[in-house]
Amino acid sequence: MTFNRRQVFGLTAGAAAFLAVAPRISFAATEDTEAAIKAFTGGAEPVEGTITLDTPEIAENGNTVPVGVSVESPMTADNYVESVLILAEGNPSPAVATFHFTALSGAAEAKTRIRLAKTQNVIAVAKMNDGSTFIDRKEVKVTIGGCGG
Amino acid sequence: MATPKPRVKVPKKASKGEVITIKTLISHPMESGQRKDKEGNLIPRQIINTFKCEFDGQLVFECDMDPAVSANPYMEFNAKVENSGTFKFTWVDDDGSIYESENKITVE
Lengths: 149, 108
What we know:
The structure holds 2 protein chains of 2 kinds.
Chain A: H1 5-41, E1 47-48, E2 51-54, E3 58-61, E4 65-71, E5 81-88, E6 95-101, E7 108-114, E8 120-128, E9 133-144
Parallel strand pairs in A: 1-9, 3-9
Antiparallel strand pairs in A: 2-4, 4-7, 5-6, 5-8, 8-9
Chain B: E1 6-9, E2 13-14, E3 18-26, E4 48-55, E5 58-65, E6 74-81, E7 85-93, E8 98-107
Parallel strand pairs in B: 2-8
Antiparallel strand pairs in B: 1-3, 3-6, 4-5, 4-7, 7-8
């Protein structure tokens, strides 16, 4: 199969148009996520570090993806992690779960299993009792989506 | 739906001040409200929305869950134990049902 000059121009223009639109689609998906982070932190911009999100690089089955979070903290009565929010950008609704810790937790670590609709970023935001916030994000590649049809 | 059955793993013994790991699992379909049945109607959402762990009446760990948590929700977390006592685990269903489990721990 050969292309003449006109067809080649048409294809290039089509591909360029697609590339221009694609980033906007993924940006729209993160707006909900940004709003959820803002609501959780009370408007503050979370800093990277202190919190570690543990996810597999590739999840074959999006129905059960193991995720873990751990936050560096002494977990004493006056210095502890209040809560950790887990978000999945590419799901129909980004909220996944919120963990609430207390000084009795001993360590700010938790693991669970979540559903991911497609390949996307998973985000964890931690809120300390003094109001400071921390964020970590990891991309998870999903082979089979986990939100049903 | 069969009555959800909680399964909890707590060490029987611990030393004073030790941080122990607790693992819990409850059988539940966690219907997300996104799926459709054969006729194309949405299956209504029914999930466990809250999980709580208390030690002798004091809150240790709590989790608010959204439909993105997998079926048969699994939770692994930690607790610091200073004295012998009882852990109480509570799961709250969207329909208001409450499922409970209790485990004793001895601190030496």
